[in-house]
Structures are given as C-alpha cells and as structure tokens.
Amino acid sequence: MGNNSDGGRLYLGVIGAGNPSREIYDMAEEVGRKAARRGWVVVTGGLGGVMEAAVKGASEAGGLSLGILPGGDRQEGNIYQTLSVVTNMRHARNSIIAHTSHALIAVDGEYGTLSEIALGLKLGRPVVGLKVSWKISGIITANSPGDAINKVSKLIKWNP
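The chain above was modelled as a monomer; its predicted structure follows.
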C-alpha cells in the first residue's frame, strides 16, 4: 500500500467535529499522538476541534501532519500542523482527505464527518469509529484511542 515516493508512510485521516466536547478533543489528541509514535502521517481538514487535537497530539509526539484546508488561505489552518494544502473547495475537500488517507478514524463528528466516512467506505478505506453515534455498515467500532489505532494497524497490515 505504501510507496517509495512518501517513504512508505501510512496516512491516517482523523476526522470529527470542529467544535467537540473536551472528552472528544482529548481522545482525538491521543489518536494523533499514538499515530505519530507509529510513524504515521496524520491527515485532517486543517481547522479546529478534532482536527486541531489530532495534529496537536502528533506534533507533541514529534510526528508529521497534513491539513487539507477548505479555503484558499494557509493562515486559516491550525498552528500545530506540519504541512497544509489550500483547496478553496470548502466541503468538497472531504474527498481529498478520503483519497489521501489509507485509513480513517472518526472521533465523534457531525455531517462533514459523515461525508468523509461515506467517501472513505466508498473508496474501500478502513474506517474506525470512536464515539460515533451513527450506525453505518462498514464502520469498525473502537472503544478507546489505542483500540482505534490497533484496529487500523490490523486492518491495513502495513508493510512499507
């Protein structure tokens, strides 16, 4: 699944609400931290909430992150991400997030998250749900950030 052009890194999409509860923010931060410790690149929509938390965790663990921004200004992105891509596509960027990611972890979420889940499943990407309230066929449920990361690892069978 990996290739030499990106160092064989797994790209993990971490998706969720822009305005989560503290509990959800902390879970997303832990997902980002654990992903970075495995050498994975954390991919998000580049803004606040779950997106910010995941890249904050990745950053604190010395990892890389990529924000796929909805607008045309890099300044709209959160301060923790390593790299950003401006799209000026608003919600249509969700397709880029799904295509860029080898797997996705949804931490809670709203309608934008739901669209990313659908796109990920349509593309055949593993989608793990952590505190996701929707009952969607194809989502693998996780009980904790560590459980979510372990499930992605097993589903991907990552061998760069």
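The chain has one domain: 4-154.
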